[in-house]
């Protein structure tokens, strides 16, 4: 982790967000958990918080973004724009987990908007410890990004799309360019 943060405060904020999400899933009318299953819902599964997976990425902004067609869980296609590439490094203490430089593409829907950057991805936990359709991150920079800017990417905030809980949702699947050949044991689990 290249930027200095208060680890205890970060961990408390992360745990608070997780509790808030569990409450939403258990009680909210728009929860993806089917109503008849909510009484038995006792919270989402998570990997333990690990600041190793909170990294600083260097942004490569694409001035003329390419259209990327993403397949969805319902067999449709959604049009996104590849607006940036995020380059980052992982440096882990565990000898079984490879260090190195990696990149993920960041997207936005094709229509002009102020939505956060959408970063769907797969990693070696996909289909085993996490949802087989991949996981998502949404990054909301506090300003317009330029190439060379830095942006925090916290995999501890990676989440499972709603379609994992109910077929009424249609979710984009991470394109192959966002398939990481490493294990990211951070964020939501889904077994």
Search tags:
191 residues; four-stranded antiparallel beta sheet; mainly beta; two-stranded antiparallel ribbon
From N to C, what is the helix and strand string?
Answer: HEEEEEEEE
Judging from the principal axes of the Cα atoms, what is the shape? globular
Distance between the termini: 28 Å
**Count of the domains:** 1
Number of helices: 1
Number of strands: 8
Which class best fits the helix and strand makeup?
mainly beta
Q: Please tell me the overall pLDDT.
A: 92
Strand order of the largest sheet: 4-3-2-7
- Unreliable spans are none
The amount of beta strand, in percent, is 25-35%
Largest sheet: 4 strands, antiparallel
Helix content: 10-25%
What value does the Rg take, in angstroms?
A: 17 Å
Explain the layout of strands and helices.
Blueprint: H1 7-27, E1 45-46, E2 54-71, E3 77-90, E4 100-109, E5 117-121, E6 135-139, E7 150-154, E8 188-189
Antiparallel strand pairs: 1-8, 2-3, 2-7, 3-4, 5-6
């Amino acid at each position: 982790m290249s930027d200095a943060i208060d680890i205890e405060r970060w961990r408390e904020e992360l745990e608070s967000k997780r509790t808030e999400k569990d409450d939403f899933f258990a009680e909210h009318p728009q929860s993806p958990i089917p109503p008849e299953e909510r009484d038995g819902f006792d919270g989402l599964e998570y990997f333990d918080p690990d600041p190793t997976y909170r990294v600083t990425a260097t942004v490569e902004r694409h001035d003329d973004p390419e259209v990327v067609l993403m397949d969805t869980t319902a067999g449709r296609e959604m049009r996104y724009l590849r607006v940036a590439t995020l380059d980052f490094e992982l440096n882990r203490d565990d000898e079984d987990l490879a260090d190195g430089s990696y990149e993920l593409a960041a997207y936005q829907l094709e229509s002009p908007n102020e939505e956060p950057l959408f970063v769907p991805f797969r990693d070696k936990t996909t289909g085993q410890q996490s949802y087989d359709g991949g996981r998502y991150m949404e990054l909301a920079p506090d300003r317009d990004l330029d190439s060379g800017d830095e942006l925090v990417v916290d995999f501890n905030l990676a989440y499972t799309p709603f379609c994992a809980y109910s077929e009424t949702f249609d979710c984009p699947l991470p394109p192959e360019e966002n398939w990481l050949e490493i294990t990211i044991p951070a964020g939501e689990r889904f077994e």
